[in-house]
Amino acid sequence: MERTFIAIKPDGVQRGAEDCLELGFKLVGIKVVVPSKDFAQKHYHDLKERPFFNGSCDFLSSGPVIAMVWEGEGVIRYGRKLIGATDRQKSEHGTIRGDLAVVVGRNIIHGSNGPVTAKDEINLWFKPQELVSYTTNAEKWIYGDN
Ligand code: GTP
Ligand code: MG
Protein backbone atom coordinates (compact mmCIF):
# COMPACT_ATOMS: atom_id res chain seq x y z
CA MET A 1 0.00 0.00 0.00
CA GLU A 2 1.16 3.54 -0.76
CA ARG A 3 2.93 5.34 2.07
CA THR A 4 4.14 8.90 2.64
CA PHE A 5 6.41 10.66 5.11
CA ILE A 6 4.93 13.65 6.96
CA ALA A 7 6.79 15.70 9.58
CA ILE A 8 5.59 18.51 11.80
CA LYS A 9 8.63 20.85 11.80
CA PRO A 10 9.98 22.54 14.96
CA ASP A 11 7.83 25.66 14.50
CA GLY A 12 4.73 23.48 13.96
CA VAL A 13 5.43 21.50 17.14
CA GLN A 14 5.85 24.71 19.18
CA ARG A 15 2.61 26.07 17.70
CA GLY A 16 0.54 22.90 18.23
CA ALA A 17 0.07 22.21 14.50
CA GLU A 18 -0.28 18.46 15.05
CA ASP A 19 -3.90 19.24 15.94
CA CYS A 20 -4.48 20.10 12.26
CA LEU A 21 -3.80 16.57 11.05
CA GLU A 22 -6.99 14.70 10.32
CA LEU A 23 -5.75 12.85 7.30
CA GLY A 24 -8.33 10.08 7.37
CA PHE A 25 -5.55 7.69 6.41
CA LYS A 26 -3.72 5.09 8.49
CA LEU A 27 -0.85 6.14 10.75
CA VAL A 28 1.74 3.34 10.61
CA GLY A 29 4.74 5.07 12.23
CA ILE A 30 5.27 8.04 14.55
CA LYS A 31 8.05 9.38 16.77
CA VAL A 32 9.38 12.64 18.17
CA VAL A 33 13.00 13.41 17.27
CA VAL A 34 15.43 16.32 17.32
CA PRO A 35 17.31 15.74 14.05
CA SER A 36 21.04 16.50 14.01
CA LYS A 37 22.33 19.01 11.46
CA ASP A 38 23.96 16.11 9.61
CA PHE A 39 20.61 14.28 9.48
CA ALA A 40 18.79 17.42 8.27
CA GLN A 41 21.38 17.72 5.46
CA LYS A 42 20.53 14.17 4.41
CA HIS A 43 16.80 14.95 4.47
CA TYR A 44 17.26 18.09 2.36
CA HIS A 45 20.08 16.67 0.14
CA ASP A 46 18.24 17.62 -3.07
CA LEU A 47 18.36 21.30 -2.01
CA LYS A 48 22.10 21.46 -1.39
CA GLU A 49 22.76 23.88 -4.26
CA ARG A 50 20.03 26.29 -3.09
CA PRO A 51 20.96 29.44 -1.12
CA PHE A 52 18.60 28.55 1.73
CA PHE A 53 19.97 24.99 2.17
CA ASN A 54 22.05 25.77 5.25
CA GLY A 55 19.26 27.80 6.87
CA SER A 56 16.67 25.06 6.20
CA CYS A 57 18.98 22.43 7.78
CA ASP A 58 19.66 24.63 10.83
CA PHE A 59 15.93 25.16 11.20
CA LEU A 60 14.95 21.49 10.85
CA SER A 61 17.48 20.56 13.53
CA SER A 62 16.45 23.40 15.88
CA GLY A 63 13.94 21.43 17.97
CA PRO A 64 11.58 18.46 18.17
CA VAL A 65 10.02 17.19 14.95
CA ILE A 66 7.02 14.82 14.88
CA ALA A 67 7.93 12.28 12.19
CA MET A 68 5.14 10.15 10.74
CA VAL A 69 4.39 7.58 8.07
CA TRP A 70 0.83 7.57 6.73
CA GLU A 71 -0.62 4.85 4.51
CA GLY A 72 -3.50 4.67 2.04
CA GLU A 73 -4.43 4.98 -1.62
CA GLY A 74 -3.41 8.40 -2.91
CA VAL A 75 -1.93 9.44 0.44
CA ILE A 76 1.13 11.18 -1.06
CA ARG A 77 -0.92 13.58 -3.16
CA TYR A 78 -3.54 13.99 -0.44
CA GLY A 79 -0.82 14.91 2.07
CA ARG A 80 0.62 17.55 -0.25
CA LYS A 81 -2.82 19.07 -0.84
CA LEU A 82 -3.56 19.18 2.87
CA ILE A 83 -0.20 20.84 3.55
CA GLY A 84 -0.51 23.47 0.79
CA ALA A 85 2.08 25.19 -1.40
CA THR A 86 5.69 25.66 -0.20
CA ASP A 87 5.27 29.44 -0.01
CA ARG A 88 2.38 30.54 2.19
CA GLN A 89 1.70 33.46 -0.19
CA LYS A 90 0.68 30.81 -2.77
CA SER A 91 -1.07 28.33 -0.48
CA GLU A 92 -4.84 28.25 -0.14
CA HIS A 93 -6.84 28.91 3.01
CA GLY A 94 -7.89 25.59 4.47
CA THR A 95 -4.40 24.16 3.97
CA ILE A 96 -2.04 23.87 6.96
CA ARG A 97 0.56 26.23 5.50
CA GLY A 98 -2.08 28.58 4.08
CA ASP A 99 -3.64 28.97 7.51
CA LEU A 100 -0.54 28.94 9.74
CA ALA A 101 2.70 29.74 7.93
CA VAL A 102 3.89 33.33 7.61
CA VAL A 103 7.28 33.03 5.88
CA VAL A 104 8.48 30.32 3.47
CA GLY A 105 11.40 29.23 5.67
CA ARG A 106 9.02 28.50 8.57
CA ASN A 107 6.28 26.50 6.94
CA ILE A 108 5.12 24.19 9.74
CA ILE A 109 5.03 20.83 8.03
CA HIS A 110 6.71 18.61 5.45
CA GLY A 111 5.24 16.01 3.12
CA SER A 112 6.93 13.79 0.55
CA ASN A 113 6.39 15.10 -2.97
CA GLY A 114 6.24 11.79 -4.86
CA PRO A 115 6.65 8.00 -4.59
CA VAL A 116 10.46 8.04 -4.92
CA THR A 117 11.05 10.70 -2.26
CA ALA A 118 8.42 9.08 -0.03
CA LYS A 119 10.36 5.80 -0.09
CA ASP A 120 13.71 7.52 0.47
CA GLU A 121 12.41 9.69 3.31
CA ILE A 122 10.65 6.80 5.07
CA ASN A 123 13.90 4.81 4.88
CA LEU A 124 15.90 7.75 6.20
CA TRP A 125 13.62 8.54 9.14
CA PHE A 126 12.37 5.07 10.15
CA LYS A 127 13.77 1.58 10.64
CA PRO A 128 11.48 -1.13 9.17
CA GLN A 129 10.66 -2.44 12.66
CA GLU A 130 9.37 1.01 13.66
CA LEU A 131 6.53 0.71 11.12
CA VAL A 132 3.41 -1.29 11.91
CA SER A 133 1.06 -3.07 9.51
CA TYR A 134 -2.50 -3.49 10.75
CA THR A 135 -6.09 -3.58 9.57
CA THR A 136 -8.79 -1.25 10.83
CA ASN A 137 -12.48 -2.07 11.04
CA ALA A 138 -13.24 0.96 8.87
CA GLU A 139 -11.12 -0.22 5.93
CA LYS A 140 -13.79 -2.43 4.36
CA TRP A 141 -16.06 0.63 4.32
CA ILE A 142 -13.33 2.92 2.97
CA TYR A 143 -12.07 0.61 0.21
CA GLY A 144 -14.90 -1.86 -0.41
CA ASP A 145 -14.21 -5.56 -1.01
CA ASN A 146 -11.80 -5.32 -3.93
P1 GTP B 1 9.09 20.32 2.18
O1 GTP B 1 7.78 19.59 2.37
O2 GTP B 1 9.61 20.91 3.47
O3 GTP B 1 10.10 19.51 1.42
O4 GTP B 1 8.70 21.60 1.30
P2 GTP B 1 8.35 21.64 -0.23
O5 GTP B 1 8.48 20.29 -0.89
O6 GTP B 1 7.03 22.33 -0.36
O7 GTP B 1 9.49 22.61 -0.80
P3 GTP B 1 11.01 22.26 -1.21
O8 GTP B 1 11.28 20.80 -1.05
O9 GTP B 1 11.26 22.90 -2.52
O10 GTP B 1 11.80 23.08 -0.11
C1 GTP B 1 12.08 22.50 1.17
C2 GTP B 1 12.01 23.57 2.23
O11 GTP B 1 13.00 24.57 1.98
C3 GTP B 1 10.69 24.33 2.25
O12 GTP B 1 9.70 23.69 3.00
C4 GTP B 1 11.10 25.63 2.90
O13 GTP B 1 11.14 25.49 4.32
C5 GTP B 1 12.50 25.84 2.39
N1 GTP B 1 12.44 26.73 1.23
C6 GTP B 1 12.00 26.48 -0.04
N2 GTP B 1 12.10 27.57 -0.82
C7 GTP B 1 12.63 28.53 -0.02
C8 GTP B 1 12.99 29.91 -0.22
O14 GTP B 1 12.85 30.46 -1.31
N3 GTP B 1 13.51 30.55 0.86
C9 GTP B 1 13.68 29.98 2.07
N4 GTP B 1 14.20 30.69 3.08
N5 GTP B 1 13.36 28.72 2.31
C10 GTP B 1 12.84 28.00 1.28
MG1 MG C 1 10.18 19.03 -0.61
TrEMBL record:
Question: Where is the Nucleoside diphosphate kinase-like domain positioned along the sequence?
Answer: 1-133
Which cofactor(s) does the record list? Answer: Mg(2+)
Q: Which reaction(s) does its UniProt entry say it catalyses?
A: a ribonucleoside 5'-diphosphate + ATP = a ribonucleoside 5'-triphosphate + ADP; a 2'-deoxyribonucleoside 5'-diphosphate + ATP = a 2'-deoxyribonucleoside 5'-triphosphate + ADP
Task: Give one GO term, molecular function aspect.
Answer: nucleoside diphosphate kinase activity
Q: Top-level EC class, please?
A: transferase
| Keyword vocabulary terms for this entry | ATP-binding, Kinase, Magnesium, Metal-binding, Nucleotide metabolism, Nucleotide-binding, Transferase
Active site, per annotation:
110 (pros-phosphohistidine intermediate)
- Say if the entry is tagged with keyword Nucleotide-binding: yes
* Main location group: mitochondrion
Where found, per UniProt? Mitochondrion intermembrane space; Plastid, Chloroplast thylakoid lumen
Gene Ontology CC? chloroplast thylakoid lumen; mitochondrial intermembrane space
In which residues is ATP bound?
Answer: 9, 52, 80, 86, 97, 107
UniProt GO BP? nucleotide metabolic process
As recorded in UniProt, its EC number(s) are: 2.7.4.6
Q: How does it assemble?
A: Homohexamer.
Q: Which family does it belong to?
A: Belongs to the NDK family.
Function of the protein: Major role in the synthesis of nucleoside triphosphates other than ATP. The ATP gamma phosphate is transferred to the NDP beta phosphate via a ping-pong mechanism, using a phosphorylated active-site intermediate. Shows the highest specificity towards GDP.
Q: What is this protein called?
A: nucleoside-diphosphate kinase
Q: Which organism is it from?
A: Eruca vesicaria subsp. sativa (Garden rocket)
From which residue to which, out of the full length, is covered?
Answer: 68 to 213 of 213
